[in-house]
Design a protein that fits this description.
Structural class: alpha+beta
CATH superfamily of the largest domain: CBS-domain
Number of helices: 9
Largest sheet: 3 strands, mixed
Radius of gyration: 26 Å
Length: 230
């Protein structure tokens, strides 16, 4: 059982710009390729930063209202610098937060969530740009067919990880929601089975109706030491 990796989901043909790319050319690159951000790379194709639509909009935000109806904007020092920038080097947000092709979807998703990013440049061992992965790329795991999810749970979770005969547990999957029914040998296996099923790519939720034969979670009775008094 394994998670899909970034290298399987990323876009390999990456549009990029150089640090000296003019402001208007950056806008044209975004518009022409229907993207919302573009990596800025050096001569060795190593990402230096990323220019997004938000970075470019600092220029318009800083403009005075010709009608005099709006108050002067309150910009941070970084936003002020970007509003005055004329090339990608001044516009970009740095450093570029990058992913590796061998990262799992979980690692990439957590990095995006932690940094509040919509996409990550993907680099090889030498730090060169080899792709880009977006939120929508990661969400593609939820397009997996229910039958494929069911087969992976039976093969990789029940048989492979837990050593349980797949036919002893009924597995149903509908729209990514997994339903488990049956009886396991030990109570401690219930939580493990649910957790492993939930970690399968494409699973939205797990509903368990599993029972158990032996409760192995009960604490063993304390044994008095030899010679001690009760």
């Amino acid at each position: 059982m394994r998670h899909r990796i970034v290298g399987e989901l990323m876009t390999s043909a990456v549009v990029h710009v150089r640090p000296d790319t003019p402001f208007k050319e950056v806008v044209q690159v975004l518009s022409r390729n229907d993207i919302t951000a573009v990596p800025v790379v050096d001569e060795q194709d190593r990402p230096l930063g990323v220019v997004s639509e938000a970075d470019l909009l600092c220029n318009e935000v800083a403009q005075e209202d010709s009608a005099g109806l709006l108050l002067a904007p309150r910009l941070s020092r970084g936003e002020r610098k970007k509003s005055e920038a004329t090339t990608a080097e001044g516009l970009m947000t740095r450093p570029a937060v990058c992913a590796r092709p061998e990262w799992t979807v979980v690692e990439a998703a957590r990095a995006m969530n932690h940094r509040h990013l919509k996409r990550l440049p993907v680099v090889d061992e030498a730090g060169r740009l080899v792709g880009i992965v977006s939120r929508s790329d990661l969400l593609r795991v939820f397009l997996r067919r229910d039958q494929a999810i069911r087969e992976e749970i039976r093969r990789e979770v029940l048989d492979g990880a837990l050593g349980i005969a797949p036919d002893s547990v009924e597995v149903q999957v509908h729209d990514g929601q997994v339903s488990l029914a049956g009886t396991l040998d030990r109570r401690s296996l219930l939580a493990v089975a649910e957790r492993l099923c939930r970690s399968v790519d494409g699973v939205v939720a797990v509903i368990s109706h599993l029972g158990y034969r032996v409760d192995d979670t009960l604490s063993a009775p304390a044994v008095a030491a030899p010679g001690s008094r009760g």
